[in-house]
Amino acid sequence: MGDSATDATTTTVLDSVPEVGQLVTVRGAKWAVADVQQQGLSRSSADDSTAQLQHAVTLQCVDEDRLGHELRVVWEIEPGRSAHTHRGLPEQVDPDRFDDPNRLAACIDALRWGAITSADDGTVQAPFRSGANVEPYQLTPLKRALASPRANLLLADDVGLGKTIEAGLVIQELLLRHRARTVVVVCPAGLVFKWQDEMQEKFGLDFTVVNSDTMKDVRRSHGVHANPFTLFPRIIVSMAWLPGQRAQRQLRDAFGSGTRFAFDILVVDEAHHVAPSSPVRTNNVGLERRGYAVDSLRTRAVRELAERSEHRLFLSATPHNGYTESFTALLEMIDPQRFVRGNKIDPVALDEVAVRRLKRDLKEAKGFLDRKVDSLRYTPDPAECDAYDRLIAFTERRDKAVSASGTGRAAKDMATLLLKKRFFSSPVAFAQTVDVYLDTRTKGLDVAFDLDYDEILGADAEDLEEGKVDQPELEALRDAKSSLPDLTDEDIADLEWLSEWGHGFEGQPDSRLAALLVYIEGELRSHGDWNNERLVIFTEYVDTLRWIRDIFRQQGYEDERIDVIEGGTDSQTRELIRLRFNESPAKTSIRILLATDAAGEGMRNCQDLWIGVFQATSVPV
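RESULT FIELD:
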């Protein structure tokens, strides 16, 4: 075919009614007319006396990202409509002019490869269409996904091996083969825009972040009854926002569409956050053991979403928390045909679903460095030991009181666990939680509505719903309000003493933070001057993070040397901080990053940094 005939031209007709099979443009997308029905006469306005014939036109979308989507419109009143009439070949065609044979061969090869990959599982397109530097080991999940009728996989590769790339390859290949059209990505709030950027830059896939702001925009542009879960074919939603009332109300409408699967592909990043937790119980000799797995609101929301999704990809570098019931519950969400919660895991079935490679397995091929883990030891002062002894005595008395009453066992487990976790985070965070616990037990406050979230978490209720703050343990205090027996005078005295002890550290370090300061002075500062080493300090609670930041200021650490990422940090600012912190030391003045889990994997993947976690897991000795 000559070069002059490479494209056929079209003319646009605005007023004429299209015919069946004709190509039209409606609402910014291209559609094929499937049916045209005459609706009768109507007036375009109240002042118009001329009746106009109207037609109901049924359309089938032909755009790649919305292939098969159906729409029904009234043609005469649809704004921005246009019908395209095909004109065939151009009038001026030179029969003696031909394309270069190599160009024609390339065109034929492209057509043949496109046809083969739609039916042959051994031939794929996604790695060649993506903009990512795909490693050979990253093709393993793609191969497994294509070999199964449904791509139900647990991608559990080590941190830094590219689980996002592996999931993107599977998504793109299923879309190219027309085995999927809709995709839902559920991830921590701090990673929603990272996922959006990765999918766009590396795979050319547009994803819409669905949150409260998106819902407001959709209602303004598409009407009050518009549902973003059905309006957009590819969406990203925060796992903290997903269990909220707004998201659940829209999802129920999407689930009620009548089809078995409301979505084609579900991707859950950091999937260990949606696994049921195993509350800690204390036996008669004071040793802690794990009980049954407790479903959180997040667990139930993701499980319901998984049941209505055909293909499921769960991503986590740490999917197993050491407790079988929690892990089997996670596996059941991925593939309920192979796994049942609480039952023994079949190793063969697990091998078919899970993809697990560690960096040491690929060290020779990729040159990964061995991770070195050292502990920073410290000696607690006598007052800290006394505080811990009082806390243990209080929890033991509460356990006995609950056992005697026979009620509130689950609430007891979670409430005492929360107090212990906050104790090992920081004295200030612990003191604030003790104050909340005392208020709920003695003043009858409702944690859900009456407590000041600004005081407890540094955020408001809207931040909790949007996922900017992730503190699900507070639900334990709500349960404790109605489930546990009343506090005794001895309990109240211990809690008041513990609260006073914790607040006493406001503006001054405890023994653990003092050891960290000594470490910083020895490793990051030489004779008072900052060197090129950098340190990331993760802490679970915002209270602890802000306490550490205040102590650093008292030590004279300049603000330009420290950056902070917490739940309230907006996504754009998080990305700027990540980019600035990942620059070479010569280009950035930042040497310390204080972060909660909101920082996401963007910081945990840095192999040339000092990584610290300010959260004790056992009693210091």
